[in-house]
Design goal:
CATH topology: Protocatechuate 4,5-dioxygenase, Chain B
Shape: globular
Radius of gyration: 18 Å
CATH class: Alpha Beta
Pfam family, one: LigB
GO molecular function, one term: ferrous iron binding
Distance between the termini: 35 Å
Structural class: alpha/beta
Protein name: Gallate dioxygenase
Largest sheet: 8 strands, mixed
CATH architecture: 3-Layer(aba) Sandwich
EC number: 1.13.11.57
Keywords: Dioxygenase, Oxidoreductase
Helix content: 25-40%
Oligomer: single chain
């Protein structure tokens, strides 16, 4: 059976992709961000992750406001990475797993989530910006992506609680898939930022850190908040944080933080955080202790 082995929350700032493509990983302004992803990439490699379920939003690249779905899931063997004005990126096309994608789609619909299904569509920086920081990709990605796009652009948006329930439904879908796969849930967006209007450049570090603590230990409080609460505390675009709640909903009640990097150097608080389920971490601790005892 497929199993969820952990979850990742990550910013998807487009400038991360630009800096990566231009080889700026060692630049003083960017090094703290890129170094912050290295433990997560190593964890994914060590855990032999087969699939990343990527919960992201499309920035009017694949979908536009004349037809913008609330929830959309991609099904296909490959997805091109969108050219968003800086040219085609030197990355392999995103790899899919049609059987798994179709299974999750059917399971979510049977769980009363009315999905839009897309094929052969480009995927923008919502997914493609952090992806190469997480997975080695030469000559190809080591596993498959299940892309799930969430509307956080055009109101009405799904509520925080609805996104959390989506995560719970994703977990049921994954755990009902008969093939043995190690699956990681990735929630993207945020944290605090606003890129238009009177509050352009707004950030709230205090709220960002509180959000991360609540996400781990008291997500129910985050579910009770309105979109207006998120916008007031973190800026207009920080409403993307509801996609982190979908990630959290796919995890058990108790989770352990394995790694966190918070870097506020631009208009967006760029963050990556890694969690494991409490039972996974406990099992790993037991295995470590057993190995130490055997070597003693």
């Amino acid at each position: 059976m497929a199993k969820i082995i952990g979850c990742i929350g990550t910013s998807h700032v487009p400038t991360i992709a630009l800096a990566y493509d231009r080889g700026r990983q060692e630049d003083p302004a960017w090094k703290p961000l890129f170094d912050g992803y290295k433990p997560v990439a190593q964890w994914l490699e060590d855990k032999k992750a087969d699939v990343l379920v990527f919960i992201y939003n499309d920035h009017a690249t694949t979908f536009f406001f004349d037809m913008y779905p609330t929830f959309a899931l991609g099904v296909g063997e490959r997805f091109p990475i969108a050219d968003e004005g800086a040219g085609l990126r030197n990355l392999p096309q995103i790899k899919g797993d049609v059987d798994l994608q179709a299974h999750i789609a059917e399971s979510l619909v049977n769980d009363e989530f009315d999905l839009t299904i897309f094929q052969n569509k480009p995927i923008d920086h919502g997914c493609a910006s952090p992806l190469p920081l997480l997975w080695k990709h030469e000559p190809d990605w080591p596993g498959a992506i299940v892309p799930i796009a969430v509307n956080v652009l055009q109101y009405p948006l799904p509520t925080p609680r609805r996104c959390y329930k989506l995560g719970q439904a994703i977990r049921r879908a994954v755990e009902s898939y008969p093939k043995d796969l190690n699956v990681v849930i990735v929630g993207t967006g945020g944290l605090s930022h606003q890129i238009h209007g009177e509050r352009t450049g707004f950030n709230n570090e205090e709220w960002d850190l509180e959000f991360l603590e609540l996400l781990q230990n008291n997500p129910q409080k985050l579910l009770d908040m309105t979109h207006a609460d998120y916008v007031r505390l973190g800026g207009a675009e920080s409403v993307e944080q509801i996609m982190w709640l979908a990630m959290r909903g796919a995890m058990p009640e108790k989770i352990n933080k394995i790694h966190q990097n918070y870097y506020l150097a631009t208009t967006t608080a760029m963050t990556v955080v890694l969690f494991e389920g409490d039972e996974v971490s406990a099992g790993a601790d037991q295995a470590t202790a057993a190995a130490a005892a055997a070597n003693a």
